[in-house]
Every structure is written in structure tokens, then in C-alpha cells.
């Protein structure tokens, strides 16, 4: 009889545990089902891109527009892997896709068309979305894309340069051929201001040091765009400019921290914040991406490195600097 009671007790415990497991599993599945999924695609590990990603995630969490899970895909600089990841996020059930940089946005667009799925996409950290073929117009993308572009206003950049270094005559523009359109724009600006613009086209970071070393004679300023190829060799550029007493003008703020004299750009974290604002309009307000105009990232500012200014041939006027809005000196 005692064995029978023990057997019955054991069976009751097993059944109770099974019911508890089913209930907990059901609750967990329900909670997971209630969470909406966001895919974030990075082409490579890079501090600037990580800041964009973090600015986006932090802002979405603060927006109080529901529970989300974030799946981050890193292409590790491998185009084949990036293609596979773009295809994967389009094929799976994501509520939103956030490609960071031009190459990931282009791949997401390519596979959206191939698979014929219109998952909402908010691109980020793309400099020229029209030129890259990601959208049809700034006001209305004509597809399932919207986003934030970070192209630096070159006219403003040249204005700041002339205010800080009024005697400048010769500028060396170092650029990758993918930025031919921006090069043409800068040529128009410098021609209008009677500045001599010298051009140096580079295809990889490895050739920058040698090419620039032989091109620095009779140059007052070395000008770098929002150009991943050239910025990858920024340490070498800083050394050359310091050695030759030449001002280094860059289009991002991180390079100023490293040793460029002048930078005009926007915080990468703020790019992520601006991207999240677009996402909230889709996730919370139910808008279609084509109803949300693409826009320039918010928070552009001038940044000057006072520690290297003299070494790079830049004499700072404190009074002039105080008159400049949205500026920072380190």
C-alpha cells in the first residue's frame, strides 16, 4: 500500500511539473511573440559604426514604443557574408531592418527586390543615398526605404576653413573614386572662391602614404572627405601633416581626437539617434517609409584640436572662434 501511495505521489509531482513547464514555456513564447524584431546590419567592426548602432538602440529603448529584440549582423568586411546576411534578414520575419553604411543598404535593397518583400528599412550612415540608388528622392523614396544621411555640407566646411586660415591658397583633396560627385562639388566651391584645388585619387589605404608624400609640396591644406578608404589611413596623414606643417581638414569628429587640426562633422551616436526617430514613426505611428522623408543627420559642428594647430600651420584666433556657433576646441 505504501508503494502505491508513493507511486501515486510521484505521478502527481511529474504531472504538476509538466503542467508548470508547459505554462512557463507558453508564457515565455507569448512574451517572445509580443516582442518585435529589429535587424541591424554592419559591414565591419568599427568604433564609429558601433556608436551609430548604440545611439539607435538606446533611443528605441527610450521611446517607449513596445518591446524589441535586436539582432546585429556583422559582415566582417566580407562582401559574400554581407550578401548572405542581407538575404537572411529579408527572408526572415523582421519588423524593421536597419542597414548601416551604403554597402549594406544597397544589398538590402537588392535582395528586397529579388525576394519581393517590402520589410520597412531605415538606413543610417549613408552619405549619398540618391547617388547610391537607395532612394528615388529625398522627399519620397518610392520604395520601402527611408533614413538618415550624413554627407557633410562642403560649402560650410570651406567657409570655416577660410575663417580659420584666411591665407590658404592650395588645397590637396585626397579621395576615393567612388566620391567623384562630391569631388566635383568641391571643385565648384573652390573655383568660386579662387582657391587652387589639387586632386589625389586613391584606391586603397596602403597607397596613401607614398602618394601623398610626393604631393605635399606647395600645399597649405590636406582635405579629407567622409571617405572610409582615406580615413582608414588617418594616422599616416596626421604624421605627414605634422611633419610638413600642413593643416589637415577632415569631415568627421573622431579624426580630430586623433590629431587632425580641423574637423566639421556630426557625432556618430547622434546619427543613430536621428535614425531611431525615423524608426519610431514606422513602429509607433504606423507610417510607411515612403511617407517619411530622408533627412540629414542632426548636430553638425566644428571641432578644432588646439594641441596640434601650430604644428599643422594653424594660428588660432580665440575671439573668432567664440563667434562660431556649434563649435568645440580640444
Reported CATH architecture of the largest domain: 3-Layer(aba) Sandwich
Number of domains: 2
Helix content: 40-55%
How many strand elements?
13
Query: Cα-atom Rg, whole angstroms?
Result: 26 Å
What string, H for helix and E for strand, traces the elements in order? HEHEHEHEEHEHEHEHHEHEHEEHE
Q: Strand pairing plus helix content: what structural class? A: alpha/beta
- What is the molecular shape? elongated
Q: pLDDT under 50 segments (min length 5)?
A: 1-32
Main sheet summary: 7 strands, mixed
As for the CATH topology of the largest domain, it is: Rossmann fold
Description:
The chain has 330 residues and is of the alpha/beta class. The protein folds into two domains: 35-150 and 268-296, Rossmann fold (3-Layer(aba) Sandwich); 154-265 and 301-329, Response regulator (Rossmann fold, 3-Layer(aba) Sandwich), CATH 3.40.50. 45% of the residues lie in helices and 19% in strands. It contains twelve helices and 13 strands. A seven-stranded mixed β-sheet has the order 7-6-8-9-10-12-13, sandwiched between helices. Strand 1 (36-42), helix 2 (47-62) and strand 2 form a beta-alpha-beta unit. Helix 2 packs parallel to helix 11 (268-283) and helix 3 packs across helix 4 (102-115). The longest helix is centred in the first third of the chain and has 33 residues, at 2-34. The chain starts with a helix and ends with a strand.
Amino acid at each position: 500500500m505504501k508503494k502505491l501511495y508513493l507511486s501515486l505521489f510521484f505521478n502527481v509531482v511529474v504531472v504538476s511539473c509538466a503542467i508548470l513547464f508547459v505554462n512557463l514555456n507558453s508564457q515565455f513564447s507569448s512574451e517572445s511573440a509580443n516582442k518585435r524584431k529589429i535587424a541591424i546590419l554592419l559591414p565591419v567592426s568599427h568604433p564609429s559604426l558601433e556608436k551609430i548602432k548604440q545611439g539607435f538602440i538606446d533611443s528605441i529603448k527610450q521611446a517607449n514604443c513596445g518591446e524589441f529584440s535586436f539582432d546585429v549582423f556583422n559582415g566582417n568586411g566580407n562582401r559574400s557574408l554581407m550578401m548572405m546576411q542581407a538575404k537572411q534578414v529579408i527572408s526572415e520575419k523582421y519588423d524593421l531592418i536597419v542597414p548601416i553604411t551604403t554597402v549594406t543598404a544597397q544589398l538590402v535593397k537588392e535582395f528586397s527586390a529579388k525576394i519581393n518583400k517590402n520589410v520597412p528599412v531605415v538606413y543610417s550612415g549613408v552619405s549619398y543615398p540618391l547617388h547610391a540608388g537607395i532612394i528615388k528622392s529625398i522627399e519620397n523614396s518610392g520604395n520601402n526605404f527611408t533614413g538618415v544621411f550624413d554627407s557633410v555640407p562642403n560649402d560650410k566646411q570651406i567657409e570655416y576653413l577660410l575663417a580659420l586660415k584666411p591665407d590658404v591658397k592650395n588645397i590637396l583633396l585626397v579621395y576615393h573614386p567612388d566620391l567623384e560627385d562630391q569631388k566635383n562639388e568641391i571643385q565648384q566651391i573652390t573655383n568660386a572662391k579662387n582657391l587652387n584645388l589639387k586632386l589625389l585619387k586613391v584606391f586603397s589605404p596602403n597607397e596613401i602614404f607614398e602618394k601623398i608624400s610626393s604631393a605635399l609640396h606647395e600645399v597649405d591644406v590636406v582635405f579629407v572627405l567622409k571617405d572610409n578608404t582615406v580615413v582608414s589611413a588617418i594616422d599616416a596623414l596626421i604624421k605627414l601633416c605634422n611633419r610638413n606643417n600642413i593643416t589637415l581638414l577632415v569631415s568627421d569628429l573622431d579624426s580630430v581626437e586623433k590629431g587632425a587640426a580641423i574637423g566639421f562633422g556630426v557625432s556618430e551616436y547622434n546619427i543613430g539617434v536621428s535614425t531611431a526617430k525615423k524608426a519610431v514613426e514606422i513602429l509607433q505611428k504606423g507610417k510607411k517609409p515612403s511617407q517619411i522623408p530622408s533627412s540629414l543627420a542632426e548636430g553638425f559642428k566644428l571641432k578644432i584640436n588646439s594641441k596640434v594647430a601650430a604644428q599643422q600651420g594653424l594660428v588660432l584666433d580665440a575671439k573668432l572662434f567664440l563667434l562660431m556657433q556649434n563649435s568645440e576646441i580640444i
